[in-house]
């Protein structure tokens, strides 16, 4: 026992000796928890976590000082609806996922992860991949330090009906889709439970359910229910048993309400949400994750590049009505997280959505909170991310100008720090 105690003491002493202290001087500091902005602050980060925040006095001598006194500093941003692990963004070919090897997908995912981090998004929720479990591998590679990217929570695969909004579609009927692209296909409640159970066993953090049809899926209509309420409930119940939750893709009004009743923690897209759905989300504390930017990208780039007419039609049928629903949900006080569907458009442009959220009813501070404190709550990581307060990860970004006066300055992130490590220095890119 004495030897063990001495060994433990040596380990602890080594840990103290290796403790790294970094200071960041912030010219202006946005505090989304309090909804305020402080001037000339010093943030102390020890071993990757915030140890103190207070007014700057003089430069400390016990650690490296990063001088961001010319910048506005915010907590690292969080995008709750990305498709980083699929890698290939903005491709209109419905069968494109089958045209790349697993190795190509992994490498493109690594590139997408770096672009996302350098854009100021230090944490993301990656809400599904076509090639199952690619996202688990990418998350773990980032956590191990092999790949540069945001902290990730991943779903493993889509829970979807065969040929539905989460399936690879658009091929000839006699073409068989490989098994790793069908890991989440279900036929009935019991199979939904089994597939959810399997994905958690393989490392998933939460469950992504495709409740209704999708815009960018051939033969799938956004307003139509694809999974039954019983199937969604089975998936959500199993997810809760495994310590997770369901994020349910639902465009149609009836599908949204069925998804909420089934136990969804968040509704993805919520494009055709009605007054009853908004009231139900508010009453049950369900988050809406509404991608109000990318409809413009799909319409502009899709028309120029000749995307399928079916995609363009469905996009037009959902874009403006989604934004009107967003405005109503903001007024009703529903929890709205920052989710962009990055991957539909090029990775690294995630911050373009802020201006749309402000245009459609949020204040700039509310928009920032949606990508910090609100997103952290939905992520289940409020103790670790979403604010620069004691004990949380030292994740922060620097921008020139005042995002509360011009939210679009967040589209031009100058500096990024993740866990106290300088990822991107102002002027380096």
The assigned CATH architecture of the largest domain is Alpha-Beta Barrel
What does the main sheet amount to?
Answer: 7 strands, mixed
Q: Encode the helix/strand succession as letters.
A: HEEEEEHEHEEHEHEHEHEHHEHHHEEE
Question: Would you tell me the structural class of the helices and strands?
Answer: alpha/beta
The main sheet orders its strands as: 3-2-1-4-14-15-16
Low-confidence stretches: 1-18
Note the overall shape: globular
Strand coverage percent: 15-25%
Give the CA-CA distance, first to last residue: 54 Å
The tally of domains stands at 2
CATH superfamily of the largest domain: Metal-dependent hydrolases
Description:
With 429 residues, this protein is an alpha/beta fold. The protein has 2 domains: 20-76 and 387-424, Urease, subunit C, domain 1 (Roll), CATH 2.30.40.10; 77-379, Alpha-Beta Barrel (TIM Barrel), CATH 3.20.20. The chain is 34% helix and 21% strand. It contains 12 helices and 16 strands. It has helices at 2-17, 102-118, 134-144, 189-201, 229-241, 253-262, 275-284, 294-305, 309-332, 353-359, 364-370, 373-379; strands at residues 21-31, 36-46, 49-55, 64-75, 77-82, 121-126, 151-154, 158-159, 207-210, 246-250, 266-269, 287-289, 336-337, 396-399, 413-418, 421-424. The strands form 3 sheets. The chain has a 7-stranded mixed sheet, with no helix packed on it. A 6-stranded parallel sheet has the order 8-9-10-11-12-13. β1 (21-31) and β2 (36-46) form a beta hairpin. α10 (353-359) packs across α11 (364-370). It is globular.
